Amino acid sequence: MAGPNKVLLKIIILGDSGVGKTSLMNQFVLHKFSNDYKATIGANFLTKEVQIDNRLVTMQIWDTAGQERFQSLGVSYYRGADCCVLQAAPRDPENFPFLVIGNKIDLSNRVVQTRQAQIYFLGISNVSYFETSGKQGNNIEKALETAARNALARNKNIDPTSDNAESIKLPENNRSTQSSRCPC
């Protein structure tokens, strides 16, 4: 447990399978790297104590599984997180389908100004930034439509007429017009 001058921070690393979440955590905490790839099952965590602004901080770094079959487990790992790190492997710019949404703009206790956030996110990685209000509905459609446009641009080979579901042809039912109730 953290003492009076000691802070415990839970930090989770999110991202697709194979982007290096485990490598990042192991390098930060253990100063080790392995070329052997082993997919994380569920989640794993390591702790590291660091000195930040004259405070001792215990960082609990959570490495989450990126495989789709484990994504339902995520909610329990996210609970109580102090910070979420979204990790991707920038092998090419089209694999970076991110946009940032600053929500709750309807509240009066604003700290970061819109222009400041836009400049920051555009400057670091050309990430689109939108401010929204889930309460008032401001800008939500524009933000999520932009997300859809970005995803579509990234996946140009998607057939817009297909719902990507394989259709199954059911045999026609040759029932008589008589009652179909059980004869017993």
Describe the structure concisely.
The chain has 184 residues and is an alpha/beta fold.
Strand order of the largest sheet: 2-3-1-4
Measured distance between first and last alpha carbons: 70 Å
* SSE order: EHEEHEEHEH
And the CATH topology of the largest domain?
Answer: Rossmann fold
Classify the helix fraction into a percent range.
10-25%
pLDDT < 50 stretches: 158-167
Portion in beta strands: 15-25%
CATH class of the largest domain equals Alpha Beta
Overall residue-averaged pLDDT value: 69
Q: Count structural domains.
A: 2
Number of helices: 4
Q: How would you describe the shape? A: globular
Please characterize this protein's 3D structure:
The structure is a single chain. With 184 residues, the protein is α/β, with parallel strands linked by helices. It folds into 2 domains: 1-89, Rossmann fold (3-Layer(aba) Sandwich), CATH 3.40.50.300; 90-156, Rossmann fold, CATH 3.40.50.300. The protein contains 4 helices and 6 strands, in the order βαββαββαβα. It has helices spanning 21-30, 74-78, 114-125, 140-154; strands at 6-14, 43-52, 55-64, 83-86, 99-102, 128-131. The strands form 2 sheets. A 4-stranded mixed beta sheet has the order 2-3-1-4. Helix 3 (114-125) links the parallel strand 5 (99-102) and strand 6 (128-131). The longest helix has 15 residues, at 140-154.
